[in-house]
Amino acid sequence: MRAKHSIKVTSPDVVSSTGSMIVISNRLPFVLQRKKDGSLVRKASAGGLVTAVAPVVINGNGFWVGWPGIHLDNPNEPIPESDPDDISPTTGLKSDKVIVVQIDPVIFDSYYNGCCNATFWPLFHSMPDRANFKREHWKNYVTANKEFAECTLRALRQLPRKNANEVPLIWVHDYHLMLAANWIRQFQLTWILTLVAFQYAEDEGIPCKLGFFLHIPFPPWDIFRLFPWSDEILQGMLACDMIGFHITDYCLNFVDCCQRNLGCRVDRKNLLVEHGGRTVRVRPLPIGIPFERFVELAEKAPKLLSTNQQIILGVDRLDYTKGLVHRLLAFEKLLEKFPEHLEKVSLLQISVPSRTDVKEYQELKEEMDQLVGRINGRFTTPNWSPIRYIYGSLSQNELAAFYRDAAVGLVTPLRDGMNLVAKEFVACQINIPPGVLIVSPFAGAGETMHEALICNPYEIDDASEIIHRALTMPEDERILRMNYLRRREKLNDVNYWTKSFLSAMGSLQTQDDHDEVGSILMPAVTLDDFDEYLAKYIGNSLKLALLLDYDGTLAPIAPHPDLAIIPAETKKVLERLSNLSDVYIAIVSGRNVENVGIEGITYAGNHGLEILHPDGTKFVHPMPTEFHNKVGELMRQLQETVCRDGAWVENKGALLTFHFRETPHHLRADLESQARKMIEDAGFIVGKAHCAIEAKPPVQWNKGRASIYILRTAFGVDWSERIRIIYVGDDATDEDAMLALKGMAATFRVTSSHIIKTSAERRLPSTDSVLTMLKWVERHLSRRKPSIDPNNYRRNSLAKSVTSAVQIEMSMQYFSESGRGRTYLKDAKQIALLLDYDGTLSPIVAHPDLATIPLETKALLEDLSAVPNIFLAIISGRNTDNVKQMVGIDNIVYAGNHGLEVIYPDGTKYVHQLPTEFSNQVKQLIANLEQSVVRDGAWIENKGASLTFHFRATPEEKRTEIENTARQIIEKAGFKVGNAHMALEARPKVEWNKGSVALLILDRHFGANKWKGNVKVIFAGDDTTDEDAMLALKGNAATFRIAPTVDVKTHAEKLLSSTQAVVTVLKLVKKLAKK
Questions:
Q1: In what order do the strands lie in the sheet with 723-729?
Q2: Phi/psi of residue 1060, nearest 5 degrees
Q3: Nearest in space to 870 (alpha carbons), one of 825, 823, 908, 815
Q4: Are 1004 and 850 within 8 A, CB to CB?
Q5: pLDDT class for 792, splitting at 50, 70, 90?
Q6: Is-catalytic flag, 341?
């Protein structure tokens, strides 16, 4: 659509930058064409961008980086100088100031046509249904952006060295290069570090400023997030120091996406985004046109419209975003509703061919051709055709003539970044009386050109009425509106836009002559920053679990792990928090288990493979035995092969870490690659860390699994309903925890400036901001009213509370040197352990099949079963075969169905006699339940001697109704109803229960009543069915009820808070039994 002939700018407004400028754009400011003799020739572009920016590049001795428009077979083929007769703005841009980007044609086609045009163009114009999301195109987009970035670094290295105040400016343009700034920043850092490694002075590295301008709209968050790699795009743009958009709406969309997609801290008022410890400025910089040039064109252009009719003018690329079909339909509606315009008004629509090889554009052209033909066929008279349709390019002289003589300029895109046609139309309106401009509110021009008539192109009827209003507008109103428009566009021309950009970058030569736009720095993270996000989430009553990484989160990253010391202030805040009754703290680190000197908190090392609880108990995840020897062998191989140039191996016991932080930057890639291969060949999993790689054993365990284990251990199986969680980490290993806790925790990632995809909800710039967050937690919790909640649980406090005469004691205290448990077991010749399964040995889960016994618990039971003076029996509500299968230990007693069935180690069985009609009654009960209440997630478990009706998966609002109905059905069928965890049990009406079977088992093994007073019996269970055993054994056993709260009525002597507390009891029984 731009000019076939270039026009010289007669009186340019000179704009200068304080430092040299490097412009990076998809296309160079000219294209190369090959002549018949095989030589290359330049063909200049004459757009407003080139007109305004090229002189700044030339005057500052800068560079322009871009693709030349053709693929060169010889990458070293010299670029020709401009034609001596060329008077375009790029005349002074010498070939040695042009960096040509050479990309493989297949990759370039995928990058440009696949990703840029088929994905970003429709998506950013809020037409996601037209967008094509393909991973291959995205990969090639990344590749192309890296190539542009590398070429830009070549230009940066060639810049002349000036004084420190003349910092070069790199200006990246448009959606083709949204990742380039990230690579430029990374490559520049790599280059500087390499120079330092070779002992050059650090100031040999050239500092630079990075700016970006997007020439198309930036979509709202709900559309932008549809792009699968949206995080990477945002972070690529945020590598710049300043990002410019046409209008404030696009700025706000971008800022919103940074907050909602990336979790960045933002300042909407001043349009600032914090990313990786840097403040990125976001600025509305509406682009203008070379106003005076278009005035000159309009004054000189010959008259092309020899008619007395009023001309409505549309000038657009043939593109689906331009609303051309809607425009034709609106014009048709105008002729229908206002027949007075027949033979007096014509629509001149100029459609410039675009992407003619794309099927979608071919179909649009066909639709336009048919629509023009239909409307003309409907309304044409012998002397008049309503639509004149030009499919082709016109010179700027011709366009200026049409702009000047048109009565109405119709600029009605469905979505457009700015649309300079509206501005060009205004500049060329030099006639008296002038024409009228109609603008869509969905173009950037609609936000600033207030005196134009605003027309929603989607509303065909209203659009026709607005066109009618423009055609019939009084002359004085037309003059008034156009004068205001022309005055504004003359002032805010393309040179003003360039000045505004340079000013916002702090690079304008005459900075005092131009206003600075808004604040340029985000304030440091304050306590108040966390109010909006955390205050409502944490609330004023629930307990809080803080799960924190160490290196890079609590302690700054250091050259050597031994130097990564937690700051004194951070440590003091953690100590104070650890003494608050409503706070639980766990440090989850990649280090081996280390105590940072704070009592009463949990330490998880080796990414959770080892966990040290506050009470001294320790969890160690099992590791394949063959890997114990492999760790040592791998360490030896690494030390012999890659431990050089500052690289070294850290042995953490369960895993190894190969560090190369102190290795010269240019040697790192090779060492890392060698180490990675050795680790993989040894059968270990490779994990990425800060300037390090980790060799992990191949076990399904990570920080996510460890975090859930810690929470379940501390707060019980239903922890997610009773606590609030904050997780903070800084590297890839923490992503496992953030993903596992997604939706159940407030998660933070401490990030650098590089592109990092994270599952965290928010980002923090540094360890200092983590400290601020911890201070906020302390402040927030200190404002709570003192809690008198008897459920207030703290694993590390060992506090006593008395409720209904039941004393809650942690198991260690009960079995301590002065505890009654130790006295009870003192000099015990025989010990009998009778244990429930679900909720006692295994945590309660959503489905019985998922209630697997933890490895640590099973190993402990196996050890106990092997002690000669310990007798072990499992008494469960499951059927006997199932509970035996779940536990998997052969030499112990299993009682199922609440004692109706017992199987002994020698294979003999006891089966309690049931009524003869019981089998038919069970079948009928199942049928009745299935017909009435087996819905909404509820289901029946048939255990043979009993049934269990489960409704844990039923929506909460339906549970009461389903439970009551099921209870009535069970009772009506003649069964006993038993309450369980989110379940009802249907048991036969026989006088037999867990208490009866407990006595039976003890009598059979030790002799009738002989065990009383001679055998130390311990019983542990977690629900109402276990109360029968606790009552039957009262006075002859130590009984424990597992309950997360104290408001439970029980016959047990002691309450335990979780299945992990049961483990603690069993460990101490084992310890005391050996004595």
A1: 618-620, 610-612, 602-605, 583-588, 543-548, 723-729, 746-750, 762-764
A2: -70, -30
A3: 825
A4: no
A5: very low
A6: no
The strand pair at 272-275 and 265-267 is best described as antiparallel
Nearest 10 degrees: CA dihedral of 1028, 1032, 1037, 1040?
A: 10
Tens digits of per-residue pLDDT, 985-1038?
A: 888 888 888 999 999 999 999 988 889 888 999 999 998 889 999 999 998 999
Beta bridge partners of 583: 544
* pLDDT exceeds 60 at position 804: no
> Which of the residues 416, 736, 838, 1022 is marked catalytic?
416
Which listed residue (125, 137, 173, 215) is catalytic? 215
The angle formed by the CA atoms of residues 488, 490 and 494, to the nearest 5 degrees, is: 110
Show contacts of 757-761: CB within 8 Å, 24+ apart: 757/231, 757/232, 758/231, 758/262, 758/263, 759/735, 760/263, 760/729, 760/735, 761/263
144: which 2 tokens? 């192309």
Cα pseudo-dihedral 943, 948, 949, 952, rounded to 10: -110
- The C-alpha atoms of residue 888 and residue 104 are separated, in whole angstroms, by 61
Other beta carbons within 10 Å of 383: 6
Beta bridge partners of 437: 409
Q: In the chain, pLDDT over 70 holds for what percent of residues?
A: 90
pLDDT at 827: 76
Q: How confident is the model at residue 819 (pLDDT cuts 50, 70, 90)?
A: low
What is the model's pLDDT at position 794?
Answer: 41
Angstrom distance (rounded) from CA 309 to CA 344: 5
- pLDDT digits over 146-161, tens only? 999 999 999 998 887 6
What SS3 string covers 955-979? CHHHHHHHHHHHHHHHHHCCCEEEE
Q: How far is CA 616 from CA 339, 611, 965, in A?
A: 92, 10, 48
Strand pairing category for 169-173 and 1054-1056: unpaired
Distance of CA 65 to the CA centre of its chain: 32
pLDDT at site 162: 64
Query: 178: which DSSP letter?
Result: T
Query: Structural domains in the chain?
Result: 21-284 (3.40.50.2000), 291-486 (3.40.50.2000), 527-620+701-783 (3.40.50.1000), 625-696 (3.30.70), 816-912+992-1074 (3.40.50.1000), 916-987 (3.30.70.1020)
Give the residue with greater pLDDT, 626 vs 203. 626
Residues 27-63: pLDDT tens digits?
999 989 998 888 899 888 766 678 778 888 888 889 9
CB 189 within 8 A of CB 149: no
- Nearest CA among 422, 399, 398 for reference residue 289: 422
655: helix, strand or coil? coil
**Cβ atoms of residues 187 and 148 within 8 Å:** no
User: Is 819 buried (19+), middle (13-18) or exposed (0-12) by CB count in 10 A?
Assistant: middle
Query: What does the pLDDT read at residue 373?
Result: 96
Q: Under a CB-based contact definition with an 8 Å cutoff, are residues 376 and 279 in contact?
A: no
| CA angle 519–521–522, rounded 5-degree value | 110
For 332-349, what is the mean pLDDT?
Answer: 96
Q: What is the pLDDT of residue 326?
A: 97
For residues 879-900, give the mean pLDDT: 90
Give the three-state DSSP class for 604.
strand
With cut-offs at 50, 70 and 90, classify the pLDDT of residue 785: low
In angstroms, the CA 730 to CA 23 distance is 35
CA angle 540, 580, 708 (to 5 degrees): 80
**What pLDDT sits at residue 282?**
96
512 assigned to active site: no
State the pLDDT at residue 802: 33
